[in-house]
Amino acid sequence: MILARRSLIAGTAALPAGCDRIAEQPTARRILFLGEDMHRGLQRALSDRNALAPEFTPDQRSPFFRPNGTRDPGTTEYAALRAARFDDWRLKVDGLVARPLSLGLADLGALPQRAQITRHDCVEGWSAIGKWQGPRLGDVLKAAGLRDAARYIVFTCADLYGGEPYYESIDLVDAFHPQTILAWALNDRFLPVMNGAPCRLRVERQLGYKHAKYLMRIQAVGSLVGIGKGRGGYWEDNVDYDWYAGI
Amino acid sequence: MTFVYRHRLATRIWHWINAVAIFILIGSGLGISNAHPRLYWGRYGANFDPAWLELPRFPSWLTIPASYNLALSRRWHLFFSLVLAFGLLGYMMASLLNRHFARDLHLRRRDLSRRHLWADLRAHLALRFHDPERPRDYNVFQKLSYVVVIFILLPLVILTGVALSPAMNAAWPWLLDLFGGRQSARSIHFLCMFGLALFTVVHLALVILAGVVNETRSMITGWWRLP
C-alpha cells in the first residue's frame, strides 16, 4: 500500500513535466492547437454573425484605461508624426481593393461615426471599459471596394515590439461586424499615445492583442502566407498565440 | 473473495477522461493565473483597480507548461476545456439513461437526517467507508461530494469559463448578467477550481485509505471486492 501511495503521489507530481514532453511532439502539438479551430467553429455556430458585444453606460467605465504592449512606438517617423499632432499621418488602405485610399484624421472624422462603450479583455486576464469612437471598418472597406478574392484584412502598425513590426489580421466576418471600428477617440478625447494614437482597431469580440494600435496601413489579402511569418500577427508568429482570439 | 460489479462502463470512461482533463486544466489554469494574479469583482478590473485577492505566483511544479508560457498554457487549457465540457455532457446523458444518477447519487431524506450524518462521520473517522448491509452503495458524504462536484462545481466552472470569452459574451450576454460581469465570472471560475482541487486531494486521500488496488481496479474493470 505504501508503494502504491508513493507511485500515486509521484505520478501526480510528474504530470506537468509529462505534459511538457507531450507538447514537444509535433503531432500532439498539432492536435492541441486544433482547439483554436474548434472554439472558432463552435463560437461562430452559436452566435449571430452580427451579434453585438455588450455595451455599457458612461458610469460603468474604468476610472483609468491601462495601456499594454507598446506605450510609445518611439521611432523617428512616429515622433515626427506626433510632433505635428498627426496632421501628416495617412492611413493607407490597399491590397485587394478597387480604389486604394489614403485617409487622414479629418477623413476618418468625416465618415459616419460609431461611438461605443465596450470592455477590453487582455489575454492576461484583466478587463477595462472605455468609450471608443470612429468610423466602421466595413464602411472604409466598402469605400475602397473590396475585391472578391479578399479573405483577410491585415493591419500594419507604426511600432516595433521586441524589434519586430507589430501587425494583426482578422477575417471578413469580424471586419464587417458593426462594432469593428477604426477608433481615433477614447473617452471623448483624441487617443492618447499609450492607447495607440492616432488610430487603433477595435474588434470587440476578440482579445486585446487583436486590437492593433498605431495603425499605418490596412491591406486586403487573399491569404496570410508571406506576411510576417505567415500566421497572421506578431503574437501568433512569435509566441504561439491563437489567431482566433474569441476566448 | 466476493466481487460486485460497481461502476458501469460510461462512469469508468468518463472518470478517467475527466481526471486527465481536471489535472491539465488546473495546471494550465494556474499558468494562466500567473499572467495576471489578481482577482476582481464586477465588470472590469485591471492593475489600477482594487483586487479582492492577490494570488501567489504558482510554482513551476504546479503549472503547465512548467516554465511560464501564457500561449501554451492557453492552448492546453482551451483544448481540454472542450474535453471537460463535452465529457460532462456525455456522462450526464448516459447516467440519466442508465439510471446511475437515480440509483447511486439520489440523496434520500433519511440519508440527510442528523443521526445518519453523524453516524457516517464517525464511520469515516474509524476508516469504515461502506455500510456492511449495503456495501455497494455510496456513503452519504460520498454522495454529497459527488453531487456538489457533478451538478454544481463542474457546470459552474464551465459556464464561468464560457463567460470569459468576448465572442460568447456577444452570443450569450445573459451569462455575464448571471455572474455579475466578466471579472466576477473570472473570480468564480477560480473559486470553483479551488473547490475541485480540494475535492481531488480528499478523493485521492480516501482512495488510499480505502485501498488503492481495490478502488483503482473497480474504476478500471468495474469489479470491486467486498471488504
TrEMBL record, chain A:
Transmembrane segments: none annotated. Pfam families: Oxidored_molyb. SUPFAM superfamilies: Oxidoreductase molybdopterin-binding domain. Its EC number is 1.8.-.-. One of its GO terms (molecular function) is oxidoreductase activity. It comes from the Bacteria. Residues 85-220 form the Oxidoreductase molybdopterin-binding domain. Signal peptide: none annotated. Keywords: Oxidoreductase. This is Sulfoxide reductase catalytic subunit YedY.
TrEMBL record, chain B:
It comes from the Bacteria. Its main location: membrane. It is a multi-pass membrane protein. The chain crosses the membrane at residues 12-32, 76-98, 144-168, 188-213. One of its GO terms (cellular component) is plasma membrane. Residues 6-222 form the Cytochrome b561 bacterial/Ni-hydrogenase domain. Keywords: Cell membrane, Electron transport, Heme, Iron, Membrane, Metal-binding, Transmembrane, Transmembrane helix, Transport. InterPro entries: Cyt_b561_bac/Ni-Hgenase, Di-haem_cyt_TM, Hydrogenase_cytochrome, Ni-dep_Hydgase_cyt-B. Pfam families: Ni_hydr_CYTB. GO terms for molecular function: electron transfer activity; heme binding; iron ion binding. Belongs to the HupC/HyaC/HydC family. This is Putative Ni/Fe-hydrogenase B-type cytochrome subunit. It comes from Sphingomonas jeddahensis.
